[in-house]
Amino acid sequence: MEIEKTLVVGAAPARVWALLLDPNVMGGCVPGMQSIDVISDVEYVSVIQVKIAFINARFRLRTNIVEMRAPGYLRTEGTGEDASVASSLRQSSEVFLSAQPDGGTELRIKLSVDVLGRLGTFGLSVMKTKADRMWEEFGANLCARLEAAEGAEGAEGTSPAAAMAGAGQQAARQAATVPPAPAATSAVPVAEA
After folding, report:
1. CA–CA distance, 29 with 123 (Å, rounded to integer)
2. Any bridge partners for residue 88, and if so which?
3. CA–CA separation, 161 and 183 (whole Å)
4. Which of these CATH numbers, 3.20.20.30, 3.30.530.20, 3.30.420.40, 3.40.50.2300, describes 2-187?
5. Lowest CB count within 10 Å: 34, 83, 87, 120, which one?
């Protein structure tokens, strides 16, 4: 399955790049992410839970950063499996960051995902629908993280809790503008989803 998605966020490319390389932050943005272990600067093992149709899968996913050109390009490869549902996946993703005239960043991701086993029997439309939902949730989570960090830095008189609450509301409004896109199993470029 090939997926290409785009998201525009209100932060400079260098700031988005720093988040992409922070596995704990990215892990918090990826829907279904349960844990992430940092093996090295370029290797991560994560556990991601997804539900497709009536099947709940819990993939243990090993992801490697295989190419990086700061602050605009990142390529990862990963494999994962869930023996309980007799399924495995293999993915490769490319992430492109482009500066926007208003100071924001366009994040574009290209994913290639092969799902084998029981989950692989589902049709492409079911998988793409799931990917679209995951991408939208990832985009909202990423925007909330960026805005919360900005709000905390910019509002000295505002408590962190108030800044986070305002950022969450803004992210929810922005999530409506995130173009529907296939997915997320990818959207997990570094943390690997």
Report:
1. 26
2. 81, 116
3. 30
4. 3.30.530.20
5. 83
